[in-house]
Amino acid sequence: MVLSVVYLLILVVSLVTYEGFRREHWRDSLLFNPYAIAQGQKSIGIFSHFWFHADWQHLIFNMLSLYMLGGVLESLWVLEFGVQKGSMLFISLYLFGGVAATILPYFRHRYNPNYRSLGASGAVSAVVFAAIMWYPQMQLGLLFLPIPIPAYIFGPLYLGIEYYAMKRGNTNIANDGHISGALFGILFVLLLDPSKFTLFLSNF
C-alpha cells in the first residue's frame, strides 16, 4: 500500500498547527514577516509559515481543499508518471508553492513592520491551480455557488475575486499570497507539460 502524499501533508500540517495553538510564542516566531526579512532577519518564515494556521476554521478549509483537489491531482500524476515521480512532483509543487506564495506579499509589505501572515492557503492555491491546468474539464463548486462549474471557468473567476479583494484591501486575508501561489501552480504545470496551455485554452 502506497502512502498518499496528500494524506501525509494533511497529517503533518494538522499536527504542526495544533502544536502552534499550544505554543503561540513558538508559532509567532515562525510567521512570514516581510519587514523583518527585508532587514535580514527571520528568513525562516518564508519556509515555515505555511505549516501553521490561525484557527481551526482556517486549517479545515485549507485541508479540505487540499484533500479534494490535491487528491485528484496526485492520482492523475501517479497514473501519468508512476508512484515515485508523481509523488515527488506533488510534494515539490506543494513545498515550492508555499515558498512562492511569499513573493507578491514580500514586495507589497516589506516596508510594513506590522504585517505578518501564516497558513497553507498559498501552497494549497498552487495545488488547486495546478489541478485546474492539468484537468480543466473537471467540475468544481463554490461555497456561495452550489452549482458546479468547469474548472477552466472557476480558475479565472477565483483569480478575479482574489485580485479585486487584494486591491480593495482590509480583508485580513493574504489575497496576494493566494495569487502568488496560484500563478506558481500554473507555471509548474506549464514547465512540466507545455501542451496543457493549449488544452486549457481549447475549452473556451
Explain the overall architecture.
It is a single chain. Helix 5 packs antiparallel against helix 6 and helix 6 (83-100) runs antiparallel to helix 10. A hairpin with a 2-residue loop joins strand 1 and strand 2. The model has no long low-confidence stretch (mean pLDDT 93). The chain has one domain (5-201): Rhomboid-like fold (Up-down Bundle). It has a two-stranded antiparallel ribbon with strand order 1-2. It is mainly alpha-helical and 204 residues long. The chain has helices spanning 5-22, 24-28, 34-38, 45-48, 56-81, 83-100, 103-109, 121-134, 151-168, 175-192, 195-201, and strands spanning 139-142, 145-150. The radius of gyration is 17 Å and the shape is globular.
